[in-house]
Amino acid sequence: MKKTVALLTDFGNKDGFVGAVKAVITSINPDVNIIDISNEVEPFNILEASLILNAVYSYFPKGTIFLSVVDPGVGTERRAVIVETKDYIFVSPDNGLLTLPLKYQTVKKIVHIKNSKYFLPTGTNTFHGRDIFAPVCGYISLSEHLENFGEFVQDYVQLPDFDPIYTEDKIIGKIVKFDRFGNAITNIDKLPDRFKVVFRGYEIERVCTNFLEGEKDRPNLIMGSFGFYELFIPQGSLKDRLSLQVSEPVEVYRI
Length: 255
What we know:
This protein is α+β, with helices and mostly antiparallel strands and 255 residues long. The strands form two sheets. Strands 8, 9, 10, 11, 12, 13, 14 and 15 form an eight-stranded antiparallel sheet that branches. Strands 2-1-3-5-4-6-7 form a seven-stranded mixed sheet, sandwiched between helices. It has two domains: 4-152, 3-Layer(aba) Sandwich (Rossmann fold), CATH 3.40.50.10790; 165-254, Bacterial fluorinating enzyme like (Elongation Factor Tu (Ef-tu), domain 3, Beta Barrel), CATH 2.40.30.90. It contains four helices and 15 strands. It has helices at residues 17-28, 46-56, 128-140, 238-242; strands at 4-9, 33-38, 65-69, 80-85, 89-93, 107-113, 150-152, 165-166, 170-178, 184-186, 195-199, 202-204, 220-223, 229-232, 249-254.
């Protein structure tokens, strides 16, 4: 069965780096299927990459190899890892990117990639996406045993302070990302049966079922495709309307 590699990076499409990564993979396995998730992650934004990967991985066929590279620590002592779960394989710098997609999966193996036999011999230490992660994914797609790439480890780096804070009477969440429409994605994925959201002085007590249902002059609430609640205005950018910033608090009161 043809293997699929799904690619998520902050490389953009201007400099040819995405093409180089794909060329390395297909040079090792010409029969591999490569799908771009996105190569337009905000540069260095590990949390955004984790959110995107978490939103899409479950729609891929079982056995997909996810190559995710947003790597501000490239060339440093940060680990490179392979994580095998029940249904998928994730290859990534060990910098927190895998936090959200692995949150509800059963992890079977974690391998610290160390075997240079599988690396490209180049004179630079600045492009591990091409020189380490791409060839490793190519060989994994040929069913190379994961233990051949390095040594087993017991843990992986997780992003700190992502989850909301829960108190007796409220949930304190925050904005974690804006999508291209200007909707504000929060880190809140569950609400009490009866609630009141307070944000920037606005109060919200219902969840809309579509993006046209909300009021145009104030924030509205909807469960979005990232798997978290979002604040939005119909056919407009809430981010621009209110000059919003990432990490602004969103409070949910139990009523």
